[in-house]
Amino acid sequence: RLIKGEVVLKNVTFGYVPGKVVLKNINVTAKPGQKIAFVGSTGAGKTTITNLINRFYEIDEGEILIDGINIKNIKKDSLRSNIAMVLQDTHLFSGTVRENIRYGRLDATDEEVIEAAKIACAHSFIERLPQGYDTVLEGDGANLSQGERQLLNIARAAISKAPILILDEATSSVDTRTEKYIERGMDQLMKNRTTFVIAHRLSTVRNADLIIVLEHGEIIEQGTHEELLALGGRYYQLYTG
Ligand code: TTP
Ligand code: MG
Q1: How far apart are CA 96 and CA 131, in angstroms?
Q2: What is the dihedral of CA 59, 64, 69, 73, to 10 degrees?
Q3: Measuring from atom 17 of ligand 1, which residue has the nearest CA?
Q4: Per-residue model confidence as pLDDT tens digits over 155-212
Q5: Angle between helices 110-119 and 146-159 in degrees, nearest 10
Q6: Predicted TM-score (pTM) of this structure
Q7: Is the ipTM of this complex over 0.95?
């Protein structure tokens, strides 16, 4: 039984600029190891919630607790090592492929780097690069495709031992075939971690423990896939298109 990775949002209200509320009175409880999905139309506030869990911004009202501790009282370094993330906009630095993956856990061995790359379905394309794992990435990974960059970010998350994982459109840039292929890797990535997943493709959220439907910054429905379908509301509409 997991004891780490509980995330609680209590009456969270937030806006990026004064006077414009983006999230209104959000309450979410993620127990250790649970998979929580956020769905809702564009601009609903899904990414914003993950920005707040990461404490990229300070909330205006309410509180966010990780394992019972208010994130305001958690050192930034400690927060970073507790949360792994794969985002739509990838973050790579000028360094080798190996260094970029190892950034997820600095004491990882070369074998662990390869293992993580395999989980992320990145091993075969890395091996085809001119210097393999020692290939230097230009700029923000400009010599890779968007999908390849995303796979490297997945490998970086896979090598991390963080108990909390955030996947915001984590496979949005890989083709459907690779996405299918990577499903088992993603399951492995989520195993034993509290995961927050955001995906436009609802097929990737249907097995979540809890699906939260956001609209204009408010939670309008929540439940499992089956419960929400039976409800016949917004999720049902999104799902049946
Ligand atoms: P998001 O939280 O980015 O909305 P989303 O993630 O649900 O949308 P998408 O499916 O397109 O990814 O935005 C919510 C609102 O907050 C929106 O009005 C844009 C605004 N916003 C900012 O003002 N600054 C920011 O940095 C972000 C991320 C959003
Ligand atoms: Mg978003």
Answers
A1: 9
A2: -10
A3: 43
A4: 999 999 999 999 998 888 888 888 888 888 999 999 999 999 998 878 779 999 999 9
A5: 120
A6: 0.94
A7: yes
Look-up of token digits 């970086």: 156
- CB of 16 sitting under 6 A from ligand 1: yes
Atom of ligand 1 at shortest range from CA of 16: 23
In a 13 Å sphere around the CA of 149, the CA atoms on its Cβ side amount to 20
DSSP class per residue in 51-114: HHHTTSS--SEEEEEETTEEGGGS-HHHHHHHEEEE-SS----SSBHHHHHHTT-TT--HHHHH
Beta bridge partners of 39: 213
Distance 49 CA to ligand 1 centre (A): 9
Non-local CB neighbours of 171 within 8 Å, separated by 6+ positions: 150, 154, 178, 179, 182, 186, 199, 204
> CB within 8 A of 148, min separation 6: which ones?
122, 125, 141
Closest CA to 158 of 176, 140, 170: 170
- Report the residue count for the chain: 241
